[in-house]
Amino acid sequence: MMLPALIESKQEFTEKSLAKAGHALVLLPVSDTLPALAGQDALAAAMRRRKRKPRDLLKTPLAVELPGGTLAVYAMLQPDATAFDMAEAVRRALAPLLAEQPDTLAIGVTGDAAFRARSAQVAVYAALVNGVVLPTQKKDAGRAIGRVALYGHVLGAARARVEALAEGNTLCRSLTALPPNTLTPGEYRKRIRRLAKTYGLSIEEFDFATLKKMGAGAFCAVAQGSPAKDAAIVHLRWSGGGRKAAARRARKTLALVGKGICFDTGGHNLKPAKYMQGMHEDMNGSAVVLGILAAASRLASPVAIDAWLAIAENHISPLAYRQNEVVRALNGTTIEVVHTDAEGRMVLADALTLAARGKPDLIADFATLTGSMHYALGSRMSGLFATSSALAHQAARAASASGERIVVFPHPADYDPALESAFADIKQCTLEGEADHILAARFLSRFVGETPWLHMDLSASSCKGGLGAVASDLTGFGVAWGAALIDELLKPEAA
Predict the structure, then answer these.
(1) Which of these, 476, 443, 440, 483, lies nearest to 461 by C-alpha position?
(2) Which of 118, 150, 182 is the last residue in one of the domains?
């Protein structure tokens, strides 16, 4: 989907340019006084009527209709706010402007150079990701923003990154929004082939029959219930780009693994309607991986990336896998099936095995995996597991930089007895459900070998009312974090 066009000007808003803007967001650093700025007479009058002080603009942005008809929202930001808090503040300030579905959205930044640079990047990113209409079949689908105009700052080198992250996030949300009768595994694979051409990725598809012959019994157990044998593990590769790419490429390789369950009925352990609603979004982990790849391609990232997308549906049918079956995963591990609705860890097991065979420097997987993570954190943060303290710190730094908040959970080996099976090497899960997010991580750890590994349980993939800079319920969480993680891998100390 096309992002809004972006134009930039170093000149701040004038009374004339603000009057022509139609819809404008004006961002100021927090202060007890108002600086001289366009529209200040109308702003001051509105503040007097409402008995507001300048610093009140920090908590509650003020929408003012200017004499020429422009709707202008004035907001103050803390210059030293966290990336998440600044993004949240900008999203709230944009809300009344986005509600009017403007053709053009103008953004003006004031203050010192550092504040202008930081606030401009956040505001432009928020305008771009919220300026696109996600896929819908409603007659009144809404109107996309055609142009974003930035006043008071020119992004310079930062522009490419802002646009790349916005494109990756939008791709992730757009795929996740598609209904299950549109995004079947077969259709998803077609779309991925087109995306591979768009972003310069090589592609290899391991279809159901191939995986069956290879011995990928964990993946095939889930996929066999579908009447259409269109499931596959899709392997995409970004070989690295940009200057000095060859030298850097030899230094760092990253494998990304994404859960791509296009619809999850729960199988024979059928979900009730309340919990089956929205299960077309169970492929979000794979969409996050595609969003990261899109951003990496646009930025010509020098890191070589292999992506493994486990694409299937979890159906109920006479052929669907059942409780107490024992299946053999691709790495030879036998698994006792305990609950057919724990299908995500099954398809990830074989995808992680394939990823580990490539001997990358790091594997990171993304999945809407467990309800227990959602109970633990709600929908405003996602949970993460890491195989070392150093890796956990890298992941936390990436979260801080990207504004996508994570909580790092332990997954100690003394949880393993809960997964001991009398009939197989390991149980898929337990029926009690206690600490299932930790048990799922312990289960998945059997399939990465000695490779450094990060596992993100995407409890924040959907958040009612939006999250951070993103105003839609679908958040695209993980794309910006993944891009920041790549930055971490490129730092000298990570070599």
Answers:
(1) 476
(2) 150
Same domain, 351 and 467: yes
Q: How far apart are CA 252 and CA 489, in angstroms?
A: 7
Domain that holds residue 371: 164-494
345 is catalytic: yes
Domain end among 150, 173, 190: 150
Please identify which residue in the block is written with the tokens 């694409």. Answer: 311
Rounded-to-integer distance, Cα 14 and Cα 85, Å: 29
Q: Catalytic: which of 91, 116, 173, 345?
A: 345
pLDDT digits (tens, 9 = 90+) for 336-360: 999 999 999 999 999 999 999 999 9
Q: In the prediction, which pLDDT does 401 show?
A: 98
> Which tokens go with 373?
């993570």
Active-site residue (options: 20, 147, 271, 397): 271
Task: Assess whether 180 and 135 both reside in one domain.
Answer: no
50 is catalytic: no
Domain count, the chain: 2
Domain CATH code at residue 445: 3.40.630.10
298, pLDDT greater than 80: yes
pLDDT at residue 169, as a whole number: 98
Radius of gyration of the chain (CA): 24
Look up the pTM and report it.
0.96
